[in-house]
Structures are given as structure tokens and as C-alpha cells.
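Q: Here's a chain of 171 amino acids. Please give me its 3D structure as C-alpha cells.
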Amino acid sequence: MFFFLSKFVPSMTFNMYWLHHSINLLKIVPFLGGWLSDRLLGDPEGWPHPIVWFGKAISAGEKALNKGSERVLKGGILAVVLILGVYLICEWILSWAWIIHPQFSGLLTAVGVFYCLSGKTLIKEVKAVFEAVDRSTEEGRRQVARIVGRIPRTCRRKRYGRRRWRPCPRT
């Protein structure tokens, strides 16, 4: 119908084009909001963090499944289940938020982007690792633990079939 009317009102096609694209541009607002929040706030200590929860789920699954035979298969299944589970949970939450109000869904998307980017904090923590390593190797290891969630010990040679891993350089 709009095409039919646009023959009589030439500016109508132009206006519909921009209306359509302006609605699509609104979809970027939650992502910009999450990115700006990350740049301004970083990851304040003491706030709950979904990435920490995901790490704890991995750790619990690893403790339960990393025993006996078929460890690689069990680990692969755990990875798929966790990734698919997080996706489905997020999809469900955002779907319900959209039903409540589209802007509420946008707000939750912005919060998700804020938590998942963690760019400002990662840059700050990596700089702190370099400063700590300049002071001592052990201090550097403790600082790396803030990023990876565990204290890196010494590297050891491990034998897996015929392949031999190279040792880490001595520090």
C-alpha cells in the first residue's frame, strides 16, 4: 500500500525508508549504553559478576566429571551444556523482558554488555601484572591470579601420547 501511495506522494517513500532504519538504529542503543557503562565504571569490586558464576559452574563440573575414563568427552559435553544453557537462559530472560516492556529488554541487554565486555578492568589488571612482575615474579603470579581465578604455579612437562609439551620459560 505504501508503494501505491508513494506514486502520489513522492516524499512518502523517503520517509518510510528512514523510519525503518531509525527503528533499526534504536537497537544499537543498549550496546552503546553497556559499552559506555563499562568505560565509565569498569567492574566495581564487590558487585556480583556472571562471569564468576560461569567460572564456578565450570569448576564444579570439572571436579565432578574430570575422573575416570572418557574425560575429554565428558569435558566436551560439559562445555556444550554450559554454553547452550547460558544462551537459553539469556534468551528466556530477554524474551520475558520484551513482553514486560521493550525498553526493559534493552536495559537488560545493556547490563549484559556491561558485564561481558570488562574492557576497562582487563586493561587495568594487565597493567598491574606488568608492574607486579617488575617487582617480583611471585607478585606477578598473584596479580595474574586476579585475572584467571587461580594462582599459576610452575610449568611442568606433561606427556600426552607421543606429543611432548614444551616447558614454560624459567623466570
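Q: Can you summarize the key feature?
A: The mean pLDDT is 77.
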